[in-house]
Amino acid sequence: MLHRFRVLATFALTLLSVPALAHDMWIEPSTFLPIPGDIVPIRLRVGQKLLGDPIPRDPQLVKDFVIEQGRVRTPVVGRDGGDPAGFVRPTAGLAVVGYQSHPSRVDMDAGKFNQYLADEGLTEVIAERSRQHLTGSGARDLFTRCAKALLYTGAARGTQDRQLGFELELVAEKNPYETNGDVPIRLTYQNRPLAGALVVAINRLRPDDKLTARTDTAGRVRFRFAPGGLWLVKAVHMVAAADRTRADWASYWASLTFQPDSTTNQTH
Amino acid sequence: MSRYQSRLGIGAVVIALTCGTAALRAHEIGTTRVTIAVDDSGAYDVAVITDAAALAEKLETVAGRTPPADSSAARLMDVLTRNQALLRQRLHLTFDDVEVPLALHISVVPATDQLSPPVANIRLTGRTPTAASRLTWRYGWTFASYSLTVRGTTGTGDPVWIDGDETSAAIDLRRIVPRPGHLEVVRRYLTLGFTHILPLGFDHVLFVLGIYLLSREPRAMLWQVSAFTLAHSITLGLAMFGMIAAPPRLVEPMIALSIAYVAIENVFLSRLRPWRVALVFGFGLLHGMGFAGALKELGLPRSQLLTALVSFNLGVEAGQLTVIGLAATLVGWHCRNKTWYRSRVVVPASIAIAVTALYWTVERLAL
To answer: Is residue A265 part of a domain?
Structure first.
């Protein structure tokens, strides 16, 4: 146990000391297993290895900030500049909270940009830059956040994650709170399955043991999510930026968070 | 406490103000705010305001421990205090490219309601090295962008946005704390000296009144005031140049006691004796150390220490003379030889002063 912590500590130190290139962004409710009708504060967080900083609600960045239950979609309420960024009141079953940002631009030199592409497994972009002899050049990236969280009140069974229509989106094809942890995840880009993309899953209790897989032709990966601890599933997709954007690339950052504990999936 | 909360509360305004630059900003804006204040005495005060739970989580993970599940202010305070050495590793303040060791003071402000997170307030204080011309700042405990505000004697600058772990642009100390002009120093410290007596130094006012009450002839007053002034100028000067030092814990109760002594003696003494002048001189030495303590708190421009010191002393003198002038006008200098002056003015006023001063003595000893 102690040894594991030491490894973890060394790893975390390294993580915190590398120059900030590309950070994950995820949704973190105060609880993933609320009692139906409770008000749940929702925080947005940016960081690495599930160590993150709270991000207040920025009206200039929020494109969508919603909660969908059953077929009803409602906005997540909150005060501009507030942390927590919003509040929801989930009813029975699975509640899908989604946040999609407007794009932000980041300019990087060649070294940083290449490192970022390698870190996020964006092999197609690396190959494309190499073909265009651009590996030695910096780049301007327009990045968009597409984060989702699954909250479960447990009172109604059989409810599922839903496609919110975000640019890049991770969808759990089974309710992670009602399975033995074996959950297929589908990645879509503009609502169509995205094949060959790297999907990574990490757990807050074991951030050094990451699960990785590339999506199949149906845009699907399968992971086994052990109960306990917050799970973050993430994927990044990058395409050439549209002409009038004054950027070279547009990147989309999808994340999906949930936290099944050992009691929620007993019946399966 | 409310000051820090209101700072976080202005997040919305800050975001609104910076929306124009959003497209060029690399990272999302977090809740961290940093203020660097430098005054013309060379003292700096850096305040880092950040989410306490997020910071505790990172520190504990890096230290190889499990992050705390309990996020009460007291628990977070424990975690931050325990990890001070680690915290320090990612705080960097340099003057002319030389990093200075940092004195940390950590506090955690509990949430005012169930919805707001506890806020950590990390303060770093110290003195800028003499003749330093620029400083840089780096904070490596956040992944998000944070605002850095610099406050000097010329005012507060616009916040600049810095990505976590990025080093700030060099801040020109001569621009934010320009060397004040000679006349400006004279004017400022004359005022500070005067206001240190009137209206701020009620204890010194009572001491001067004590001297005034026993002075039926101008000669008596002249002797006492001169002795007092000479004495406090000596100790003020010596203390300011660091040649003598006395703890305020000792000086402040003794100042109060000296006032009581003078007032009590007024009741029993009807005219000035030579040893009274010697005593007033001794008490003046004490009061001078009190003035030095006050002046140190106000801060002195290092470049013009002597000018400031002399101006402050002159301001104190002007304050004392004003007290005597007011007393003479109100009680009436011409009444001093009336038969009832002693029984109706000197004795009751002296008793009132003595009681007040004795109360202060006890109060200051208790602190």
So the answer is: no
Residue A266 is assigned to a structural domain of this protein: no
Using an 8 Å Cβ cutoff, are B14 and B147 in contact? yes
Shortest distance between the Cα of B232 and any Cα of chain A, in A, equals 54
Is the residue at A32 inside a domain? yes
Cα–Cα–Cα angle for A174, A177, A179, nearest 5°? 55
Nearest-Cα distance to chain A for B125, in Å, is 25
CB contact under 8 A, A80 and B143: no
- The reply to whether B162 and B187 lie within a common domain is no
User: What are A144-193's pLDDT values in tens digits?
Assistant: 999 999 999 876 777 889 999 999 999 999 999 998 889 999 999 999 99
Which residues are CB-neighbours of B249 under 8 A, at least 6 positions away? B367
Domains contained in chain B, number:
2
My answer on whether omega of the bond before A84 falls inside 30° of 0, hence cis, is yes
Instruction: Answer yes or no: is the ipTM higher than 0.90.
Output: no
Contact A56 B31 (CB under 8 A): yes
B106: closest CA among B157, B48, B41, B24? B48
Regarding whether B224 and B164 lie in a shared domain, the answer is no
* Lowest-confidence region among A20-34, B103-117, B294-308, B319-333: B294-308
Same domain, B139 and B198: no
Domain-located, residue A205: yes
- Nearest residue of B to residue A145, measured between CA atoms: B28
Locate tokens 């919003």: which residue?
A86
pTM assigned to the model? 0.69
